[in-house]
Amino acid sequence: MLRAFTFQFNVSRYQAMSACVSLMRQWARQGDRRFFVRCIGWIAGMTLPLVALGCRNSASPVDGARHQVIWRVPVSQVGGGWHGTPAIVGNRVFFELNNGVTAFDVGTGAVLWQSAVKPNASPAAENIVARGGRLFLAEAVEVLGLDAATGAILWRFTPDAQAAESESAVDDVAMYIGTRTHKVYALDVRTGTALWTTDIGPTWSYPGFIKGMSVSGDTVYAGGVRYLNQFGGISAGVIAALDRRDGHVLWMYQGPGNGQFSVNSAPTVAGRLLVASDLGGAFVAVDRMTGQEVWRVNGTIGYFGPHAAPVVVGSQVYVGSNDKSVYRADLATGSVVWKTDTRGSIGTFTVCNQTAFANNQRLFALDTSSGQVVSTLLVDSGEDFLTSGFAVAPDRVLVSGSQAVYAIGC
Asked: Which residues of 209-245 are buried (b: 16+ CB within 10 A; e: fewer)?
């Protein structure tokens, strides 16, 4: 058995934790490090007001505050906060808070609009994606397109199964979603009409789930997990390449199947390569044209691997992993340049300018050249802890927690 995850928060905060015990084993098999947050959200996720917003911190905004909080907007959230990834369009950033989407000004944190998209707070979308003045998100029941300027709902689509566990992708033609029935849908960005649907595992004997979508040129990529026995105690990470025009499968990659392996986020497109996080304990590069594995970097034995997608900057790959480490590796060879221990399992991760941000309930800022920790943020923030992924602006990252939305300088 893999070693239990290292958490930096006090589980006694959650009075309802005991109700989650029966679900923990299932979520752990699916490779979701954040099952604690999801569980509390499901318990508390009844119909609630969209979001209660407090006044902005009186000390914000702060100009040029590298590795500091530039602004903070208090929010009232259900179930410990959103675990998905926000989107930026121009000077606006979009978060899912409780049962809707809220738009904030990137520069000041001012709330621009709120739009309710569902009756309950959870489950919630894995990410919000944006294109052509529209926002797109896949919820538990419906997939929605919104006007980015106003929050007005433009269309709704109901797939055959839940798509909220998969990161979505979008281009000028379609939004691409993946479901718990290992299907990929291409939805017209203007109308939400299904252009095509493909099952990437029609002959699979056991369940499989799509966990993340990417698109580049004429190819769509779906990363996920294929169970190799009934309950997923043995599983393999998979990546399928599909033709963007009609959805037919071009190739299928399947990684090791001797443990609990899973491509648990969207594969990152990097030239001829796809770089993917394997929750089984590694990150891996696959040739985008052939589907052949090029290199694999194994993490610390006894720990799960990365949950968040790798970040590629130039010729370097950066990864934050559940083995508590941040990695920098050479894109061409996978050779590790440096590895830094952050003393806690990393849930969300990004790179902004020359800073890598690793969230393990505290926020570590690392210098990308050396791997040295240059700052640790939100150490004294009381009950608050960061839960969401990061949106990256030129001089700051935007992230939400259990009590607030933050802009942090980079």
From this structure: bbbbbbbbeebbbbbbbbbbeeebebbbbbbbbbebe
